[in-house]
Amino acid sequence: MKKLGKNSSNKDLENVKEGDAIKDDTGKQGEVEVVEILKRKHESQYYYKLKDDGTILVIK
To answer: Region Disordered: what ranges (predicted)?
Structure first.
C-alpha cells in the first residue's frame, strides 16, 4: 500500500497507477480506479478516484 500526502514527492504521486492500493494522511484508503492530474501555473492537483467509494486529492 502506498501512503500519499502533501509531503509525497511529485515522482511518487505521478507513479500511482490504476489498481494500486493507496492511503492518505487522514486514513482514507482504497484501490485506485481512475487517476487524473491537473497542472495549473505553480500547482499540481492529483485526483485518485477509488474503486469502492470516494476520491483522494493531493495538492502540491
So the answer is: 1-24
